[in-house]
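User: Hi! I'm working on a homework problem where we have to compare a predicted structure to a textbook description. Could you give me the structure for the chain below?
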Amino acid sequence: MSIESGSYAEFSAFIHREVNATRVPVNGTVEITNRCPLDCAHCYNNLPMHDGVARARELTTAEHHRIIDELADLGCLWLLYTGGEIFARRDFLDIYRHAIRRGLLVTLFTNGTMVTEAIADELVKWPPFSIEITLYGATRETYEGLTGIAGSYDLCMRGIALLLERGLPLKLKTVAVSINKHEIGAMAAMAENLGVEFKFDAMINPRIDCSSSPLAVRLTPEEIVSLDLDDPERIVAWQELVAKFQPMPVPEGQTPQLYDCGGGVNSFAIDPYGDMSICVLSHVDRYNVRDGSVSDGWNHFLRGVRQRPQSRPGKCTTCSLKSMCGMCPANGELENGDPETPVDFLCEVAHLRAITFDIPVRPHGHCTMCDDVSRLRGTAAALRNGGAERIAAIAAAQPRPLVSSCGSGGCDNCSAGAGR
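Assistant: Happy to help. Predicted structure tokens:
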């Protein structure tokens, strides 16, 4: 392929095809801190800004520099910095500049509330590949209803303005939950008026400390599919995704691997305390790069995690809807305490999407959702015919009350996560 004549998407696809066979970690995610000035109801890892225990455990500036150097030497190309809130660390720009100097294409995930003129000016001097700010509502009432912090809406709007004034590569996104579901369209319109890309996701999972509190604001499958129906482009995208990514047949006598994503093949995650894992949601199998090298973590530890076989057959292995579902071992760990137990919620969303969008559901072993197809067909028909009244008819407009309980089934990690 001629890189000069190809699009960025073609370039990215080319790189991934080339590196997959040789396991080059071209995609990295570094959670710089779990501390954040917001207290969002849906978040899976946020901690208070003043959490001294968490701050003391975080990797130092020098350790981050060393990690960046090792990643660059291993062939890392794209590096995402996320949190918590990345600017909660006063040394973040120092760390960020080192990554840019080493030639990495750096994406920044931030809530925008801590962006100042000085930070924005520094980003102009050292431009990132991309910046993504998460909106939590189109109005102050909704935004702060989700973040739990008075004044956070205005701080976010200020951060967006500062970045746009300087022509930085900004995108906006949101997570659709019960508190802000009625403003998804308004947030999309806000982004359009600003001339930036907008996207949303409605998939919520339990916290990494075993609390299931985020599930209290998770939308129902009906609400999620209803939001899809409001955007015809999303429907086409789901149809194309399923058509493009079908499960590969498992040769007779062979056991499929537990993981089939890019984790451990071309991507990895490192948390604020140096634990390297398959992805940001997976915290069962971890290798600490503070105690060892990034190279050992990638070449030996994550290789072994990635090669782990399934211990039992499951319906997900041959399910044609898997690309639309989101089920993975990390989700199984968080929601069921078992990487191989399917998450029924994800399964229901996928099957309801398929039926509603006329996507074929091929046989894939015993499946409770396939057994319940009559109900799902009725729901799909109601969604297709409901017009603008769909969401209001399916669920009350008021958000569900927050709850906090462990949904892990007893993972024994609560004591370890208590200081995080």
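For your comparison, note the following. Residues 393-420 have pLDDT under 50 and may be disordered. The radius of gyration is 21 Å. Good luck with the assignment!
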